Amino acid sequence: MSKKNLKAVDLKRVKLISGLLAQKNKLVRKEVIPYQWQALNDELPDTEPSHAIENFRIAAGRSEGEFHGMVFQDSDVAKWLEAVAYQLTVNPDPELEKRADEVIDLIGEAQQDDGYLNTYFIVKEPEMKWKNLAECHELYCAGHLIEAAVAYYKATGKDKLLKIMQKNADLIDSIFGLEADKLKGYPGHQEIELALIKLFNVTGEERYRDLAKYFIDQRGQEPFYFEKEWEERGKVNHWPDFKQNTEREYYQAHAPVREQNAAAGHAVRALYMYSGMADTARVSGDQSLIEACRRLWSNTTKKQMYITGGTGSTVHGEAFTIDYDLPNDTAYTETCAAVALVFFAQRMLHLEKKGEYADVMERALYNGALSGMSEDGRRFFYVNPLEVKPEVAKNRNDHRHVKTVRQKWFGCACCPPNLARLLTSIGSYIYSQNEEELYVNLYSDSQAKVEFGGQEIEIIQNTNYPWEEEVEIELKAEQAAEFTLALRIPGWCRKAALQLNGKNINITEHLEDGYLRLKRSWQNDKLKLILKMPVEKVYANPEIKEDLNKAALQRGPIVYTFEEVDNGKNLAALTFAREAKLKAEFEKDLLGGVTTIKTRAKKVDSLGWEGDLYSTQKPGSREVEVKAVPYYSWNNRGEGEMAVWLNSN
Question: Which intervals hold domain Non-reducing end beta-L-arabinofuranosidase-like GH127 catalytic (predicted)?
Fold first, then answer.
């Protein structure tokens, strides 16, 4: 690992004070974590039962019964534990820690003597262990539990879960590899790769790093392992309608990863894999892996990403399709995929110090990820379309995946706890550093402590970003320390200004790859950064046919949408009025406090069309005022139409 590579400033050293990210972080701590604990224990009325905790009780011998839920149900518990760990890192809570310790004791009791740990196979199909990697998520669940173990150890210093998962990882290492007596398989759903790198980082055990590299290198090799194991188990599938031997792209197994050029297959699996590739490249310096990450990043974000940072445009396989295929009303854009894109973006930033990575990280966070949770933290979207007409969604089979209101829980509940673990750890995405540089990636009212040259530096951000343009930054230290402070100038910002201790700084002279870099001796200094946030119309690449002659609104990092509650029905009839002003206004009592946008639009008039389906007479139109709200906030005021893109002359 190069000393010049960045790493996240430890979560323990960052404190969120106020603003949007702090609000969401607090919401998860106060509402989401307790709510999801109820869900995991089947205590929510009128919801699909989870049975996740009960599965561990049965596996541990505390209860009798049958396994219930998805084959990957263990991962919901793991992600809940990981979110708890991040909260305990910055908000000590003895009662929550006691509950987490009890869950860890239960997990330890469920683990078998050889280290095996997966409640589905312990309880339901013990004879099928390691025989259906393609479909049954053994390695995926192990990966999530490893991530939880690392997070909990770093939060509390307690190593019980870490030891449990080291024993499990050692078992996996003894089973998989290129040696003659080992299985040549790899996970159907990637996750363990990035988890193993975390385990390597905290333990220093190189076998975990090497196992992650093995799983990455083995994918896409011939013969196709998933077809081989399918034949060996009598061509029987866990999912009866799954076509095992024709879905190589679904698994990103259509070619060795170093030869892949475009995002393909299941979007979450792909982005977890790319994150693991970037992690492995970072600790190994593998240039061919770095080049593959660059290619896959470029294709994902420049040809297959929605304006919201959503990815995965089709419900079939929850997958990427082809370049520029980005339909709005049938978009799948799973919440987990937006979360995974945040992971990938941060890892690319730590490989290469370029603002474009943080720009996408911010876009996916503020739009595609935050939209997955309601304002009260008790309702969730799995799918995040960019256009909804409730009557269509409820009556057309090709829209059946689109929910018109957030759900209390899901039978497949991967997204709610995934979003929870992201938002509880969000402090670790704000700052990155190496021995010589401190990067400010996200702007949020916060405090952090870092070290340079043996000196502790406190950095304080005072801002109401993303609603306001001004960010005040203060650095405090008992003694001066020399390092480079790098402030991100977002790609969406066309005009920025900076003052250092009251003196204007020429941004152009110091701008490099999207960051304004200032190298000097820092001690007690104040900066004022202005990031101009005019409301702008955004247009899509003409290759995206669904958005031709349309525009969306964006202010700063926030993408906006129009809702029926503000603008009436038939949003498709709206066209932005020519030269109409775009007025931004902060409404503190709306949706938790948001900036809204008002403008004028022409709306096609339906008067005179009663009883007629077609006419040679062109419809008339009238001018109306329209209002847009942040995309992430839609559907908090009842069911109705929604559209990100409106017609534009």
Answer: 14-427
Kindly give the interhelix angle for 415-424 and 335-351, rounded to the nearest 10 degrees: 40
Helix (H, G, I), strand (E, B), or coil: what is residue 362?
A: helix
Name the pLDDT band for 48 (thresholds 50, 70, 90). confident
| pLDDT bracket for residue 241 (50, 70, 90) | confident
- Type of residue found at 575: T
Q: Each residue of 257-279: pLDDT tens digit? A: 999 999 999 999 999 999 999 99
Catalytic residue list contains 141: no
Q: Which residues contact 180 (CB under 8 A, 6 or more apart)?
A: none
pLDDT band for position 245 (cuts 50, 70, 90): low
Identify the residue whose tokens are 């950095």: 459
Phi, then psi, of 521 in degrees rounded to 5: -90, 120
Give the H/E segment covering residue 351: helix 335-351
Q: What is the DSSP letter of 380?
A: B
Residue type, 57: R
CB-based contacts of 544, cutoff 8 Å, min separation 6: 324, 326
Q: What count of other Cβ atoms lies within 10 Å of the Cβ of residue 430?
A: 22
Which one, of 85, 34, 330, 373, lies nearest residue 202 by Cα? Answer: 85
Quickly state the pLDDT bin for 610 (edges 50, 70, 90): confident
Q: State whether residue 3 is helix, strand or coil.
A: coil
Counts of helices then strands in the chain (DSSP H, E): 21, 23
Catalytic residue among 136, 293, 336, 414: 414
Question: Cα separation of 68 and 51, whole Å?
Answer: 6
Measured CA to CA in angstroms, residue 266 lies from 312, 388, 421, 473 at distances of 7, 23, 21, 41
Active-site entry in 147, 247, 249, 318: 318
β pairing state of 621-630 and 594-604: antiparallel
CA dist., res. 415 & res. 406, Å (int): 12
- Report domain extents, the chain: 72-249, 431-531, 536-648
Coil, strand or helix at 444: coil
What's the CATH superfamily of 431-531? Golgi alpha-mannosidase II (2.60.40.1180)
The model's pLDDT over 189-212, given as tens digits with 9 standing for 90+, comes to 999 999 999 999 999 999 999 999
User: Which amino acid is present at 608?
Assistant: G
**Cα–Cα distance, 439 to 444 (Å, whole number):** 14
pLDDT, residue 457, reads 97
pTM of the model: 0.98
Q: Are 464 and 19 in contact (CB under 8 A)?
A: yes
Q: Provide the pLDDT for residue 580.
A: 92
d(CA 319, CA 357) in angstroms, rounded, equals: 22
End-to-end CA distance of the chain: 52
Among 503, 621, 633, 493, residue whose Cα is nearest residue 563: 633
| pLDDT value at residue 2 | 61
Q: Which of 94, 48, 44, 99 is nearest to 77 (CA)?
A: 99
